[in-house]
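Q: Protein A?
A:
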Amino acid sequence: MNSAWACAALFTAALCTDLQERVIPNTLTLSAALGGLAFHTLQSGAPGALWSVQGALTGLACLFIPFVLGGVGGGDVKLLVATGTWVGAYALFSIFLYGAMAGGTMALVPYVKHQKERRCGNKPAGPWTRPSATMPYSLAMAAGYAAYLLMGKVPLG
């Protein structure tokens, strides 16, 4: 198993629970983070462990302020931290940027629909039509990871 497959499995499991229950289980993120740390430590010793920890800290740094401001949930932060243990700091930051672009695009759809309905005098219906509605950010992060893979930048490990 390499990092690409491990992250694909991690995002698949996170998406399943986040889309259905709006929760990313701690057991999933903790086991993935420990797995990434163990994998890279066994592969490269102390340098591998340091590389993995740097990736985790980068994930924490990327979503810490949005979490404190209420923009993302704790599960989203832990998912990015766990991903960082598998892909390292550089790859994680790229995945985060691609995910942020995907998330911004996804957030525009309900906002534009809401504005259009307001102009037409229709009352919006459903949770996805309100601008204040939340979306599972794991979807945006998974899109960011997919974009990273499609760009041909498969994480090493």
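Q: Protein B?
A:
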Amino acid sequence: MIAEVIVENATEVRTAQNAGANRLLLARHIMQGGVSPDLKTIAEVLEASRVPVYALVRPDLKDYAYGLDRKPRIYKILDAYRRAGIQNISFGAIEGSMINWLLLEEAITYGFNITFNAAFDFTQELSVNYLLLSMYPRVERVTTRGQAVNIPDGQAEVKKLVSLNKPHLRVMVEASGFTYENLPAFLQETGVKEIQFGRTVRDEHGKLNPITLAQYVSIMNGKPIQKEKRGLHSGFDISSDVSRYRR
């Protein structure tokens, strides 16, 4: 089981790793939706990390439709990350209700390993797009809520994606809507092996809560936690279409 945690700096890297994270996504302004981190922070995070790190490629808090006015900023980020030796990115782009295949292919030419991010859920026909994405070896996983506001409501769609069974294109779900009670049944029913934690493991001030994270990781690994020792759920579990980079 893979627990990916969104972090903002090297201090959070250490906190997340100690709580059981085995992959990290680095971003800025997580509570507002998430944008690309700067090169200095990336260097500090890579030095502190013992697990794989992905850097978010997202220039602003707007949508994932990168028109002519925003596309140059995407290229600027990709160029800077490549020159800095970054290997893994989280990226997604749409055009209308379709994946922007041209922009995705241009990102692939930079040589990154790619997680296709939350943009995936803003497209039509998730299953079709999943199969098409599986044709790109550099695209390692898709991130989804099954087009639902909270992931338990997207369970049927997630199960369908997992059943397509393309081992080189994994399905990772966002944690929004999970509780200690509903997570085990969701994992058993869908077969999901990767979960991304963002706001769900942060308090109302945006601080990463290692107790809550560690307890979710324990549940993912089949180790129920004692009720009296449970951490507090975040007050930011409910998402919106405007500010839904990650939970």
